[in-house]
């Protein structure tokens, strides 16, 4: 069938890509090897888009002129290998949507802090009155918005998997927060492959574009030295601010950009903790590219509400504080969480281990954690890593068991922290499901 676009995966990004493809006059076929959620089935039916679930009809897909794949499908999947052998282009939804918009894009990636920085940047631009869309790993599908909403600027959170499927796409403003080992199972356990993937955020940039990056991150700094970078480099860190760039002086963040200087006390930032100073600086620089006034920027950085499932101080029960950090799907995220705790912690951790190295947590766990509740199907690595520095390590087979166990182990004045350091797919649909179940069980105590 000529002009067929096949879309693999019928989640938010796949359905958005299908709507855009149909609008652009392509024949569209959506195929998902798993189940398709009811709300997405309804959308596809309403738009009269052909779809299948529970299988891939290969004859049909291998006749497409273009395939848009979900970021969750690895390159090693047999169907992807066949498509590559036939020379059929396989791209991401972001790449596909980028072909049909001339809106400006702020693209944010990094191993940790992406969602917070993306939502904060969106918050700043929206409050300043820009016609701005939120897309990528958060918000609504980029393709769907390009098809139906037409924003002037998009703030897009990009994972390495999305970047892998992007070729001609160009970010007007690229933000790279940090690079720590994550998803190494998808990158042949080679850190350099993962680093290269993150640096794809710079592809096709010109001298008119901006590259905002953390100068305190050793991996990022070393990689920049190896590369020719065309765009305007704007580093940020906890030292003095360069020009252009951002830094901290006498407990104030300073941002220098385009003959403009912005400054505000770090105590006035709505997001506290060292990692959030980085996130606030990155969002601040990105916003200043779009000429946001200093007063507006200051106000937005001080009234932002934070992200659900990311260090969300949820409830106190009998003097025990319950904190939902379900979004911590890697070791580094949990490091930030533990680092920001100031009371004895009962730590709920575990899930699908992505080749985690827990050794960087040892010092923090020794200092701050009184007990660990393992929540996952395979907890051997956690027990092995912390068995000699935490007296109580117990296992739980469900969120209900985990919350109860943590509650019994904690005392008045302690904190129960759900910060899994792992993916969620063994017992939960995703990290949101995991965080919501945590909150539900805490309410039930």
Give a brief description.
This protein is of the alpha/beta class and 445 residues long. Helices cover 35% and strands 22% of the residues.
Strand order of the largest sheet: 7-8-6-9-10-11
Q: For the record, what is the CATH homologous superfamily label of the largest domain?
A: Mur-like, catalytic domain
Give the end-to-end Cα distance, rounded to a whole number of Å.
58 Å
Category from helices, strands and their pairing: alpha/beta
- Judging from the principal axes of the Cα atoms, what is the shape? globular
**Overall domain count:** 3
Total strands: 20
Q: Class of the largest domain, according to the CATH hierarchy?
A: Alpha Beta
Q: What are the segments in which pLDDT stays under 50 over at least 5 consecutive residues?
A: none
Query: Helix proportion of residues, in percent?
Result: 25-40%
* Spatial extent as radius of gyration: 22 Å
Q: Note the total helix count.
A: 17
CATH architecture classification of the largest domain: 3-Layer(aba) Sandwich
User: How large is the share of residues in beta strands?
Assistant: 15-25%
Q: What is the residue-mean pLDDT, rounded to a whole number?
A: 93
In CATH, the topology of the largest domain is named UDP-N-acetylmuramoyl-L-alanine:D-glutamate ligase
Largest sheet: 6 strands, parallel
């Amino acid at each position: 069938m000529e002009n067929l676009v096949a879309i693999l995966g019928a989640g938010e990004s796949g359905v958005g890509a299908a709507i855009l493809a149909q609008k652009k006059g392509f024949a569209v076929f959506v195929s998902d090897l798993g189940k398709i959620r009811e709300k997405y089935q309804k959308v596809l039916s309403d738009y009269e888009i052909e779809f299948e679930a529970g299988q891939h009809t290969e004859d049909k897909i291998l006749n497409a002129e273009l395939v848009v794949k979900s970021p969750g499908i690895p390159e090693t999947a047999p169907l992807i290998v066949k498509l590559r052998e036939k020379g059929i282009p396989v791209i991401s939804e972001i790449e596909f949507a980028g072909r049909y918009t001339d809106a400006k894009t702020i693209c944010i990636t990094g191993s940790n802090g992406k969602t917070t920085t993306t939502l904060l940047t969106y918050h700043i631009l929206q409050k300043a009155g820009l016609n701005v869309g939120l897309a990528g790993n958060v918000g609504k599908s980029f393709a769907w918005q390009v098809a139906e909403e037409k924003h002037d600027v998009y703030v897009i959170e990009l994972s390495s998997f999305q970047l892998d499927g992007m070729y001609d796409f160009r970010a007007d403003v690229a933000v790279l927060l940090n690079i720590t080992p994550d998803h190494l199972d998808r990158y042949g356990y080679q850190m350099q492959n993962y680093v290269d993937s993150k640096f794809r955020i710079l592809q096709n940039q010109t001298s008119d574009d901006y590259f905002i990056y953390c100068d305190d991150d050793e991996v990022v700094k070393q990689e920049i030295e190896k590369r020719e970078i065309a765009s305007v480099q704007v580093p940020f860190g906890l030292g003095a601010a360069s020009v252009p760039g951002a830094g901290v002086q006498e407990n104030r963040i300073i941002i220098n950009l385009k003959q403009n200087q912005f400054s505000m006390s770090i105590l006035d930032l709505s997001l506290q903790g060292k990692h959030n100073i980085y996130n606030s600086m990155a969002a601040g620089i990105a916003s200043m590219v779009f000429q946001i006034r200093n007063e507006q920027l200051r106000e937005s950085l001080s009234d932002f509400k934070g992200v659900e499932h990311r260090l969300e101080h949820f409830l106190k029960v009998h003097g025990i504080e319950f904190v939902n950090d379900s979004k911590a799907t890697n070791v580094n995220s949990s490091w930030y969480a533990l680092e920001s705790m100031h009371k004895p912690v009962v730590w709920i951790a575990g899930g699908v281990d992505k080749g985690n190295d827990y050794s960087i947590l040892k010092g923090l766990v020794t200092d701050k954690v009184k007990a660990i509740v393992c929540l996952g199907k395979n907890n051997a690595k956690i027990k092995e890593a912390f068995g000699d520095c935490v007296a109580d390590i117990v296992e739980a087979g469900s969120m209900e068991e985990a919350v109860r166990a943590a509650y019994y182990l904690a005392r008045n004045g302690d904190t129960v922290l759900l910060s899994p350091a792992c993916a969620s797919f063994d017992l939960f649909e995703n990290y949101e499901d995991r965080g919501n179940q945590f909150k539900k069980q805490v309410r039930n105590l």
